[in-house]
Amino acid sequence: MTGPSSHRRSPRGPLVLDIRELGRRAGSMKHVVTRAPAPTELGNEMIKVPPGALIELAVRLESVMEGVLVSGTASTPLAGECSRCLDPFEDEAAVDIRELFYYPDRVVGDVDDDDCPQVVNDHIDLLPALRDALVLNLPLSPCCRPDCAGLCVDCGARLDDLEPGHTHEQVDPRWAALPSLVENSALIDNKEKD
């Protein structure tokens, strides 16, 4: 729904901050340190924030002419699958958040309400800003550790669990039929001798 903030419902959720104490006087500041449970689907296919895990926020809210400038950090646990060995692993991420939430009467130009983060009934929703900051910083191919050797391409075993020098006998496909020809030749020779 678009229109003035008085007609919009206040956002709800664990990452929504009430900014009434801040006021609209430019230069007013407020520091917020809090923990909030993570929503579902905050990440990508290979690594994500476990739903319900606690996200630690340490942000500064600053009233400016156009709205409220939010800057600070968010720290959260991560759970993923190693792109090399496919084992599950856990990690942590810390990202910087910097977003200007406009007062509805300060939005200028042809900016779509949905593209422009806004203060709604003295509340701001940090989820979109956190999602943008976090997801863009997550690796597309996460690893359980930087030196993970991955899986053997021949047998699928974890290379880190195998003896050094693990190899499989490789037969050139052009010569693959040779052993059976030699064996058949030996059988023919043995039959002729009988």
Account of the protein in words:
The protein has 2 helices and 8 strands. The protein is of the alpha+beta class and 194 residues long. It has 2 domains: 5-137, no CATH class; 168-193. Strands 2, 3, 4, 5, 6 and 7 form a 6-stranded antiparallel β-sheet that branches. A two-stranded antiparallel sheet has the order 1-8. Strand 3 (42-43) and strand 4 (47-49) form a beta hairpin. The relative contact order is 0.16. Residues 1-6 have low confidence and may be disordered.
Q: Percent of residues in helical segments?
A: 10-25%
Instruction: Give the SSE order as H and E letters.
Output: EEEEEEEEHH
Measured on Cα atoms, how large is the radius of gyration?
A: 30 Å
Average of pLDDT: 84
Give a count of the beta strands, DSSP E runs of length 2 or more.
8
Pairing-aware structural class of the strands and helices? alpha+beta
3D shape: rod-shaped
Beta-strand percentage range:
25-35%
In the predicted model, the low-confidence regions spanning at least 5 consecutive residues are 1-6
Number of helices: 2
State the major sheet.
Answer: 6 strands, antiparallel
Report how far the terminal alpha carbons are from each other. Answer: 95 Å
Structural domains: how many: 2
Quickly describe the structure.
With 194 residues, this protein is of the alpha+beta class. 14% of the residues lie in helices and 31% in strands. β3 (42-43) and β4 (47-49) form a beta hairpin.
